[in-house]
Design goal:
single chain; about 190 residues; alpha/beta; Rossmann fold; two-stranded antiparallel sheet; binds S-adenosylmethionine; Methyltransf_25
Length: about 190
Amino acid sequence: MDSDFYKNRRTVEKYIQMAKGFDGRDLIQKLKLYLLPHSHVLELGSGPGADFAILRKDFNVIGSDYSTEFLNRLRMRFPKDVFIELDAAKMDTALTFDCIYSNKVLHHLTNEELECSIQRQYEMLSANGIICHSFWKGSGTENFKGMFVNNHTEASLKDFFSHYFNILELSSYKEFETEDSLLYIGSKKKP
Ligand SMILES: C[S@@+](CC[C@H](N)C(=O)[O-])C[C@H]1O[C@@H](n2cnc3c(N)ncnc32)[C@H](O)[C@@H]1O
C-alpha cells in the first residue's frame, strides 16, 4: 500500500538518519548457510543500501526499490552496481534469480499484495531458489508515520508461503525489542 514517506526527499533523509547503525548482517549470515557464493540475488526495498553493501561481498546482487529518491542515492553510492525500480507488490520484471531477499519491506504490503508478490517470487526463482525476508512480529495492521504496516506471526507467514515454499528457517529475533521481528527463509517447492 502506497505512501509518500519513502518517496519524499525530506522523509527519506529522516529515515536514513533513523536507520543508521542497523543492518541485516545476522540475517545474511543465516542466508549464507543455504545459498552458494556468487548466486544471483535480488534485494527488494534496498533503501539506504546497508544490506546491499553486505550482500554484494558474497553474491551477484541487483538492488531495487520502488522509490526514485532511494534509487538515485543508491546509484550514487554504488556506481558500478545495478539497481532497478521495482514494486515488491507487483514484481513486474522478466529477470530471474537464485534468491530474493528483503529486510523489513514486505510488511508494507496488504495481504492481497503479499499473496501476489509471493506467487511472482516463486515464478522468478530458479529451480532451487531461495527466499529470505524479515517482518515485524505482531498482529493486525497499523499506521506508522503515515505508512501502512502489516504485522505477521509465525502462523500467518506459514499460511502465506506454504503453497510455494518449504521452510528452511522461521525464527524470531530482536531488532529494537526482544522478539519484535521474524525471519523467514524458504526454498522453492518443486512444481
Ligand atoms: C523499512 S525500509 C527498509 C530498507 C532496507 N531494507 C533496510 O533494511 O534499511 C523499507 C524500504 O522498502 C521500500 N519499499 C516500501 N514499499 C515498497 C514496495 N511496495 N516495493 C518496493 N520497495 C518498497 C522503501 O522505499 C524502503 O526503501
